[in-house]
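Hi there,

I know you've been waiting on this one. I reran it after we fixed the sequence typo, so this is the corrected version. Both the input and the resulting structure follow.
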Amino acid sequence: MRLATILLGDKERAAVLVDEKVIVLADINRYLNLDHPETLFELIQPEALATFGNWWGSVDVGRLGADLGHPIEGVEFGPLYRHPRKIWGIGLNYVEHASDLHEKAPSSEPASFMKPDTTIIGPRDQIEIPNQSERTTAEAELGVIIGKTCKDVSEGEAESYIAGYTTIIDMTAEDILQVNPRYLTRSKSFDTFFSFGPEFVTVDEIEDLSELEVSTVINGGIHRKNKVQNMTFNPHHLVSFHSKVMTLLPGDIISTGTPGAVVIQDGDIVECHIDGFRPLINPVKDLKGRKEESEHGSTIER
């Protein structure tokens, strides 16, 4: 299945994506007198997702789409959800990216960090470069979404604990980080520094995880791309490793690292492209430009 959160007025509602159509779960419930969860975070809880998946496999999807589907064009997507219990990020998980930063890629254990949920934005939302940073980067990444409570699992067991995958754009105030590596949490935690969506793609939709190609795209051009098979620590290893640190819960996110970070500026358009996924796209605004505009009454070109 391919699931999403769409904006309906002031509400965020779970939906299924089928053949360029969007079917809202609330509409399904009303039409068929059912009681499926109507937000994505509730839907991806283990029992709810299994129940809905079994039901979805038994219905005439084409007929349902004809009766309830809305064209995907013009639909406004939100972040998949706003309050995961945990967001794990992985630094320097592609050797080539580490060399870009003149750093040695970790080889024995992942270089992981955590982010607060106040960083979350969704597709088409604005990434804001903070006043404290002159060099902020954006990084396209594959996101792993945990589907079941997960503690001390092996790499071989990890896939059964994953609900699905998504596209992510992660931001870093790189100049803050370069002052001192202990500033990593601060450099990663500004508001708007974590975009994810528009699609949640269940595990069964992925034919070969290792062959997925992840691309950081800036203003329509590919900045850097690489395949999952070239990660130092693959997604299953990351789930296993972090489950041995702390219990992973349904909806927790592991952002698996970027093939390449790109410096962003006011007016840029950043995208995450992953094979078989709908692209994640976000515009960029430099708050320092906004401050100058408010102080002087006119926009200063940067």
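Quick highlight: Confidence is low (pLDDT under 50) at residues 296-302.

Best,
R. S.
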